Every structure is written in C-alpha cells, then in structure tokens.
DNA sequence: GGCGGCTTGCGAAAGTGTGCACAATCATAC
DNA sequence: GTATGATTGTGCACACTTTCGCAAGCCGCC
C-alpha cells in the first residue's frame, strides 16, 4: 500500500469482493475487468485502476484469477478475520438485524445485544443471544471489547448510545438512526437510512416526469 | 435549475433537509452555513455552494431562514407531494420495513405489499395492508401505478422482482438485496446493504490497529 | 444615518477522481 | 517458434468536486 487510497475506491472494493465470491461459488476460474464491469455497472478501466492501487493481480491476455483476486481483496478489506459486533436497540428493526443470516458468513458476529426496555431485557433472541441491559454496556465493553457497534435505537437516543460506544474505544459504528452522529476523528461511522435514499431518488423522479 | 446538478450534491440535500426540519421543530428561525456544517460534519463552503446551484436563499450577515430553506428544499427534492410505494418480500426485514413509522411523515406511503409464500399471502400487516400474491404484482401495477418499489426478497429472487417492476414502468427502486440490480437507463436504483458498509469500515479498522 | 461585525454567493484555484489509449505481456493455435 | 488475439497496468488529459478568498449586502447599535 504505497500511497493514500481514495475513499471512493475503498467503498467499491466490497462490491467487487461480493461478485467475485459469487463467481467462485459458480465455479468461474478467470474473469476480465470487462466482465466485472458489466456485472457491476462500472467501467473496466475503473476496476483495473482501483485494483492497481494494491498490486498487480491480473494477467495480460487472460484476466484475473477469481480465486487469487478474492483472496487478495479479502486480505485488503480485513475479511480474513472475524469481527465482533454489539447491537444496541432490539425493536422491530433490531430484531430483524439480529436474526439476519447475512452477517455471519461474511465474518461478522453479533456477540451482544442491548436494550433499555425492561420487558425486552432478559428475553432470548434467535439462538443463544440474551438481551442485556444497556446500562451494562459500558462495563461489558470494558471487560470484553468489540470492534463494531450497530445502533438501532430511536433518533433521540442515538447520540447517547454512540457516546457510550466511543467512550469504550469502539472503532466503527453502523447507525440506522436518522441523525448525523458526532464522533471524534478516527472512529468510522456509516449510516443506513432508507428515507435519505428515497429522497435522493424523488429528486430525479420529479425531473423525469416533467 | 439552470445547468446539470452533480449527483453528489443531490445526495447531500436530504441530510440538509432533515436537519432543517429538526431545527424548525425546535423553533430555530435562522441558521448559518457554519452552524449547519458543524451539525453535519461538512464545510460551510460546501453547503453554500450546494444551495447556490438552486438559488439564493440566504441573507448576508444573517444566514438562512429555516422556514424558507426547508420549503425550498422540499420543492427541490420533490417532497411537496406524496409518493406511492410497493414492498416486495415480507420476511423479517420486510415486516420491519412495513411497520416502520418513518416513511409516512416524510411523504412516502406503502400502498401494497407482496410475497410469494402462500402462508404469508392474505395475512394482515400492521393496520390496513393485506399481503398480496407477487403473481398479481404486474397486473396490479398496470391497473394502479406506483412511483417506487422496495425490494426485500432473497438475493436470488431480486433480479426477477426488479424486472417485473421495471416492466411495469416503475421509476425508482430501493433494494435491500445484496446483488447489483440490472436496470435500463432512466430507472433510479439505490441499494441498502449493511454488509457492504461493514466491509468498508473493516478496511480502516485493520489499518488503524496496525 | 453611518459604522462594525457577520455571512452569503460566487469566481477562481486547488485538489481528486475517471476514462482513454497504448505498450507490455500472456495463452493459444498452427 | 511465431503469429494472433486478448487483456492488463498505467501515464496522461480531462472532468469533476471541494475549498479558498473576498466583494457585496444585511443587521443592529449608537
Ligand atoms: N424499522 C425500520 O425499518 C427502520 C428503518 C430505518 C431506520 N430505522 C431506525 O432504526 C431505529 C429503530 O427503529 P425501530 O423501528 O426498530 O424502532 P423501535 O421503537 O421498534 O425499537 C427501538 C428500540 O430501541 C430501544 N431503546 C430505546 N432507547 C434505548 C437506549 N437508550 N438504549 C438501548 N435501547 C434503547 C427501545 O426499547 C426499542 O426496543 C430508529 O432510529 C429508526 O428511525 C428503522
Ligand atoms: N434481515 C435483515 O436485517 C437484512 C439486512 C440487510 C439485507 N437483507 C436482505 O433483505 C432480503 C430479505 O431479508 P429477510 O431477512 O427479510 O429474508 P426472509 O427470508 O426473512 O424474507 C424473504 C421474504 O421474501 C419472500 N420471497 C421470496 N421470493 C419472493 C418473490 N419472488 N417474490 C416475492 N416474495 C418473495 C419470502 O417468502 C420471504 O417472506 C434479503 O435479500 C437479505 O439479504 C436483510
């Protein structure tokens, strides 16, 4: 990794990685930047340029070994280890997240779930997870740190939860709450908000029909 | 709207809009680009530049009228009308989406929900929505078009559902399925995928601790 | 009614990101 | 062994995006 990699490049790598694992599962051995680009709706040049930040993984005249490139991206993205996560807020959305089977195969484990509601605390979720009291979150994290926090509490509670996570030294937060979280530099935050996505699309819808 | 507006600008407007509605609810009358920027973690210059694509909404020495700017952004983003949506796939995630109270206040109405599972079809969801059979989706849309489709089916089924929506002339799709949907030009697609967000963050986590 | 302090809007500069075009290289076929 | 056809990696030019810097304009105070 010689120089600084643009953030946009990092954000594209996971989509490359996911397509490659699909190809691998389908038994495809070699793939060209052309083919990758068609499947992902990006230009072949962009894919080659993105990958060239990290090394020379292809072969002229052939393309990329799916196996090789998958392995390289796994290492680059840090997916060759398991990541421990806590989930805060076990309401409707939190329940869906906790039962989602898409995290574990990708190396992400939810190792603790928390809520403030006394009726929720103590209940069992899915298999082995018991909802804990959010009042214990700080202590639990001090005893047993995790890598990532998932925030699924109402908007008004989100910053308080984020503050606890940050104070515990967490490195990354995935927030579903519809507010911009304030965190110190060095803490990664991504927000998932379907309303923002919808509002970005209505701008275009309006113009298209007009 | 004189010239072409960069897509990155459009994607920031909803976050401005949301903050402004919060400020309005809290009774704030005037706000400066400085204050907006601090709350949203962007530079004041960027906010001013973004807004200047659409008009001159501020007053020198004062800032922006929260009321005025909210109204302007509402019009720009097309949020001064209601948008009709259908939801396809009423599993764990789809159920959470259908019961989410965050869409309706922003002008987005789920007017139909569909599934393929015979046990789900016919059941009532939340208040007045009855799960319909996805086999009827094309006909229903032909009779009564909607603006936006929300896809919450398994990855392998997503493209087929997208194809039906596109054939029905839908303008925008919000997909939760972990695959890149293929659509013709002119159809807006946004994907929501927590795993991609997580994988983007682990790249940075790996580098920080190293 | 003029002065001082603020903040916008915007042109221009600086900084980033993308796509083109092509030399270099590889696999294969004959 | 060489010709053929394909595809990578990358320098470069262009395009896009962000930030700077400041004149113009607004408010309130004295
Ligand atoms: N449901 C969706 O599809 C959806 C979609 C997008 C975003 N969101 C957002 O996700 C968040 C949760 O949505 P939801 O529909 O699950 O709401 P919900 O009300 O069903 O669940 C929220 C849960 O958080 C718990 N909680 C509240 N304060 C807490 C605290 N301080 N610490 C720990 N737990 C706390 C509550 O007890 C409740 O169980 C909201 O911010 C919402 O805007 C939801
Ligand atoms: N649960 C989550 O938190 C979560 C998070 C991110 C993404 N996702 C994605 O969202 C999608 C749904 O996830 P889920 O956890 O709700 O899965 P799920 O299995 O609980 O639900 C899927 C639903 O889709 C229905 N379905 C299947 N094929 C269909 C078709 N052709 N037409 C209509 N309905 C069909 C099924 O009957 C089922 O009810 C998946 O693609 C998943 O990867 C889920």
Characterise this structure.
2 copies of one chain form a homodimer. Chain A is of the alpha/beta class and 210 residues long. The first copy, chain A, has 2 domains: 7-76, Winged helix-like DNA-binding domain superfamily/Winged helix DNA-binding domain (Arc Repressor Mutant, subunit A), CATH 1.10.10.10; 83-195, Rossmann fold (3-Layer(aba) Sandwich). Helices cover 43% and strands 19% of the residues of chain A. Chain A is built from 8 helices and 10 strands. In chain A, a hairpin with a 3-residue loop joins strand 6 and strand 7 (129-133). In chain A, helix 1 packs across helix 4 (66-77) and helix 2 (33-40) crosses helix 3 (44-52). Chains A and B meet through helix 1, helix 5 and helix 8 of A and helix 1, helix 5 and helix 8 of B. The complex binds nicotinamide-adenine-dinucleotide (2 copies).
**Named CATH topology of the largest domain in chain A:** Rossmann fold
> Count the strands of chain A?
10
| Strand arrangement across the biggest beta sheet of chain A | 6-7-5-4-8-9-10
Q: In the CATH hierarchy, what is the superfamily of the largest domain in chain A?
A: NAD(P)-binding Rossmann-like Domain
Helix-strand string of chain A: HEHHEEHEHEEEHEHEEH
Number of domains of chain A: 2
Give the class-level CATH name of the largest domain in chain A.
Alpha Beta
Form type of chain A: globular
Bound molecules: nicotinamide-adenine-dinucleotide
Radius of gyration of chain A: 20 Å
| Largest sheet composition of chain A | 7 strands, mixed
């Amino acid at each position: 990794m010689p120089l600084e990699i643009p953030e946009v490049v990092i954000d594209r790598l996971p989509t490359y990685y996911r397509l490659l694992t699909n190809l691998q599962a389908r038994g495809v051995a070699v793939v060209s930047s052309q083919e990758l680009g068609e499947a992902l709706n990006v230009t072949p040049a962009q894919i080659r340029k993105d990958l060239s930040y990290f090394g020379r993984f292809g072969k002229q005249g052939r393309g990329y070994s799916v196996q090789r490139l998958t392995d390289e991206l796994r290492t680059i993205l840090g997916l060759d280890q398991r990541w421990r996560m806590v989930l805060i807020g076990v309401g409707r959305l939190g329940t869906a997240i906790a039962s989602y089977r898409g995290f574990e195969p990708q190396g992400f484990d939810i190792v603790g779930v928390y809520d403030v509601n006394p009726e929720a605390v103590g209940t069992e979720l899915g298999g082995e997870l018991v909802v804990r009291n959010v009042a214990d979150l700080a202590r639990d994290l001090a005893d047993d740190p995790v890598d990532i926090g998932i925030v699924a509490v109402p908007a008004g509670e989100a910053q308080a939860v984020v503050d606890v996570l940050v104070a515990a030294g967490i490195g990354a937060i995935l927030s579903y709450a519809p507010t911009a979280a304030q965190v110190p530099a060095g803490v990664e935050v991504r927000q998932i908000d379907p309303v923002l996505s919808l509002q970005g699309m209505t701008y275009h819808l309006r113009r298209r029909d007009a």
